[in-house]
């Protein structure tokens, strides 16, 4: 498990801004940069101007959208680009919490790595991964 000090240090760089009908804030999720938006045509559009932190490795953005039961996390991963994972635990559906090098479920202790792969059970399935299409000025997350 990650230490509280590491978590606070990691999340200290969150930003506040708003644009384009979406709202980017530092919310109640431990100061994480958070985007509140909508799903349009089975996609979520994230402007790079709204999430400049994703140009740095391992930085994240939480996305809340009407119709999603749990948020999506966008994270910049070395060699992978920006990936999108559901924060719904594959064990029994609790919301997992992002940490600097992991995603952890407080319900029964499952732990996932930054790619959403199971590190520790009881979960046995990886977190759901969404396709991300990167364009010059945005990322589009495809919601099936
Ligand atoms: S719901 Fe996440 S470990 Fe059980």
N- and C-termini, Cα separation: 32 Å
Kindly report the name of the CATH homologous superfamily.
Rieske [2Fe-2S] iron-sulphur domain
Strand order of the largest sheet: 1-2-3-5-6-7-12
Give the rounded overall mean pLDDT: 83
Strand count, sense and closure of the main sheet? 7 strands, mixed
The CATH class designation is Mainly Beta
Q: What is the percentage of strand-forming residues?
A: 35-45%
Structural class: mainly beta
Overview of the structural elements:
The chain is mostly beta strands. It has one domain (4-142): Rieske [2Fe-2S] iron-sulphur domain (Rieske Iron-sulfur Protein, 3-layer Sandwich), CATH 2.102.10.10. Helices cover 6% and strands 40% of the residues. It has one helix at 4-11, and strands at 17-19, 22-26, 33-37, 43-47, 60-65, 72-77, 81-86, 97-99, 102-104, 111-112, 118-120, 129-130, 132-134, 138-142. The protein has a 7-stranded mixed beta sheet with strand order 1-2-3-5-6-7-12, with no helix packed on it. It is globular and about 40 Å long. Mean pLDDT is 83; it is low at 1-21. Residues 89, 91-94, 105, 107-110, 122-123 line the site of FE2/S2 (inorganic) cluster (FES).
Task: Give a summary of the structure in a few sentences.
The protein has 144 residues and is mainly β. 6% of the residues lie in helices and 40% in strands.
